[in-house]
């Protein structure tokens, strides 16, 4: 099997690290060939805090995926999240020296590069600059300015900022695990690609990805990402609370949460009781399910309310910005019973649970289409897209080279224009910078 048709997503999470191998089948859907997962010990709230342990977990997940698929993994697409990610809205403009010429790629690159001069907090860098809409000479709501005339070009941007040291640390872990970094993607974007349909992104939707250490939010409207946020709480704080509240060990608390937990306390009768074996020679503990769901409820409400504040920050309450498709919940935390009802109750928005089967091949395993794997599936898809782009660029470059050779020497004056390429996203540039940094840092 050719390796250039295969993409590997590496989801470095707080609870688990997943390596997923996929390729495109003939229908253009992603077919998952193998999956490996390992307990993640060196990551806290989405940020690496122990490099050695993270490397071990990555290697374990990768070996498992290799064993299942029979494919050797060389390059991976990795996701970044974590509490250091924040986003802001910013508008900027450029004045064009010659308004007789139409606006082209270069003008837009110039405008985007201007955004990079924004002053950040120490150690922060811009990860993503996403133009929202453009204005030309004061005419608003222009989706695609290329090819239009105008002297002043301005745009609103959604700027995502993160700590460069945290991103480098992830790169470092990947590299030290004997892997190459093929690409870096923002995790909320990856999850969104895996579970949302194009219609939802058009209508307006908020994707809430509840992980172990963080809860990621991505808001789309009119097909464009409008807002991202990472909230530094996830399923693990719920487990912590159960552990403290019931005086039991973490493993028992996690099991209780998964097997008997509910986000809605009214569901349980007063007399439903679970008995938990005591530690070595101690009496078993009895816990009422009502108490359990009260503990869970209190924590979940807190998480959902914080996310809702972010959705309101985006401006969901303005008529024009209304999110018609409501909320989609994904990530491991989305499996909590009655969570959908609770989220609808708090936000008043339509809610569904998102399974990453939007772009998966029809015969995929039940297990893979679990919300747990949304980010991993999204990363695989991102890698496949990236390869497609590389292939097209390579083919175009060869074509252009052939044209240059074919053109006769008299017409040397004519410069061969390379075909229009997709604008390289900032993440591609960031990936390259992180790679260079790691190569030179050895």
Automatic annotation (TrEMBL):
The keyword Cell cycle applies. Residues 397-417 are annotated as: Disordered. The keyword Cell cycle applies. It is found in: Cell membrane. Gene3D superfamilies: 3.30.1490.110, 3.30.420.40. CDD domains: ASKHA_NBD_FtsA. InterPro entries: ATPase_NBD, Cell_div_FtsA, FtsA/MreB, SHS2_FtsA. Keywords: Cell cycle, Cell division, Cell membrane, Membrane. Residues 7-195 form the SHS2 domain. It is a peripheral membrane protein. It holds the Pfam family SHS2_FTSA. Its main location: membrane. GO terms for biological process: cell division. Self-interacts. Interacts with FtsZ. Belongs to the FtsA/MreB family. Cell division protein that is involved in the assembly of the Z ring. May serve as a membrane anchor for the Z ring. PANTHER family: CELL DIVISION PROTEIN FTSA, CELL DIVISION PROTEIN FTSA-RELATED. HAMAP family: FtsA. This is Cell division protein FtsA.
């Amino acid at each position: 099997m050719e390796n250039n048709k295969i993409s590997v997503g590496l989801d470095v999470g707080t609870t688990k690290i997943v390596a997923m191998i996929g390729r495109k089948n003939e229908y253009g859907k992603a077919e998952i060939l193998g999956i490996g997962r390992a307990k993640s010990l060196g990551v806290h709230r989405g940020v690496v805090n122990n490099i050695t342990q993270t490397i071990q977990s990555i290697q374990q997940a990768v070996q498992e995926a290799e064993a299942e698929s029979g494919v050797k993994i060389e390059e991976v697409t990795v996701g970044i999240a974590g509490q250091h990610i924040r986003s802001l809205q910013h508008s900027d403009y450029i004045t064009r020296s010659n308004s007789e010429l139409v606006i082209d790629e270069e003008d837009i690159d110039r405008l985007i590069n201007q955004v990079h001069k924004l002053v950040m907090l120490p150690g922060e860098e811009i990860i993503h600059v996403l133009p929202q809409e453009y204005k030309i000479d004061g005419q608003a709501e222009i989706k695609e300015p290329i090819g239009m005339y105008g002297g002043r070009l301005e745009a609103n941007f959604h700027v995502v900022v993160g700590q460069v040291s945290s991103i480098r640390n992830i790169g470092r872990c990947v590299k030290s695990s004997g892997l190459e970094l093929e690409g870096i993607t923002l995790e909320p974007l990856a999850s969104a690609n895996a579970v949302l349909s194009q219609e939802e992104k058009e209508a307006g939707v908020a994707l809430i990805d509840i992980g172990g250490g963080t809860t990621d939010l991505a808001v789309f409207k009119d097909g464009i990402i409008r807002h991202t946020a990472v909230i530094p709480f996830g399923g693990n704080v719920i487990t912590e609370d159960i552990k403290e509240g019931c005086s039991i060990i973490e493993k028992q608390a996690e099991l209780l949460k998964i097997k008997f937990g509910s986000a809605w306390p009214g569901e349980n009768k007063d007399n439903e009781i679970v008995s938990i074996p005591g530690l070595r020679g101690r009496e078993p503990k009895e816990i009422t399910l009502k108490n359990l769901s009260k503990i869970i409820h209190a924590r979940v409400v807190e998480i959902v309310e914080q996310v809702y504040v972010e959705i309101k920050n985006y401006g969901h309450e303005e008529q024009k910005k209304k999110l018609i498709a409501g909320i989609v919940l994904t990530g491991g935390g989305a499996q909590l019973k009655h969570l959908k009802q609770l989220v609808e109750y708090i936000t008043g928005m339509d809610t569904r649970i998102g399974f990453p089967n939007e772009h998966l091949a029809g015969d995929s395993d039940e297990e893979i289409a679990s919300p747990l794997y949304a980010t991993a599936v999204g990363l695989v898809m991102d890698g496949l897209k990236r390869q497609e782009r590389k292939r097209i660029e390579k083919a175009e470059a060869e074509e252009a080279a052939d044209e240059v050779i074919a053109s006769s020497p008299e017409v040397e004056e004519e410069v061969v224009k390379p075909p229009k390429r997709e604008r390289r996203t900032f993440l591609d540039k960031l990936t390259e910078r992180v790679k260079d940094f790691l190569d030179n840092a050895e």
